[in-house]
Amino acid sequence: MGGIGLFNVVKKVLQLQMLTILIVFALAWTFTGKQQGMSALFGGLIGFLPNIVFAFLFGRKDPGKTANQVVKAFYFGETLKLALTALLFIIVFQLPGISALPLFIAFAAVMAVFWFSLLLSNYQK
Predict the structure, then answer these.
(1) Which tens digit of pLDDT belongs to each residue from 42-101?
(2) How far is CA 56 from the centre of its chain?
(3) Residue 1 lies in a domain
(4) Which domain holds residue 14?
(5) I want to staple 44 with a disulfide (CB 3.0 to 4.6 A). Which of 19, 71, 96, 106 is the partner?
């Protein structure tokens, strides 16, 4: 993610989300077994993948864009994230052996990283 021109805060959030996925996956696998671990992994990825798509499509610095273009791109990106998230939930729940609780815990943990990162970045300024 180093040379793609993303904002620094976007890179940090994505890195923290990936770390969160790995931690929740490892904890779920270790303490509750393979099925719950895989469910946690899928839940984390459902939260992460739409964010990374958004970041790569809309998280680059582009000084040539007008404010109106930035706002339109942001709303399009958020709509895309929501649609992709819903699609991923539909796909994952078609898989055999998915455990809902670890899936939703991992998804919530990844989303919490996103929101707390944004909150903390405001306090650091």
Answers:
(1) 999 999 999 999 888 876 667 787 888 888 888 988 999 999 999 999 999 999 999 999
(2) 12
(3) no
(4) 8-124
(5) 106
Q: For residue 122, what pLDDT band results from cuts at 50, 70 and 90? A: low
Cα separation, 21 vs 46, whole angstroms: 10
Q: In angstroms, how far is CA 108 from the centroid of its own chain?
A: 10
Tokens 């670890």 -> residue: 102
Residue 2 lies in a domain: no
* DSSP states of 7-59: -HHHHHHHHHHHHHHHHHHHHHHHHH-HHHHHHHHHHHHHHHHHHHHHHHHH-
Q: How many domains does the chain have?
A: 1
**Structural domain contains residue 23:** yes
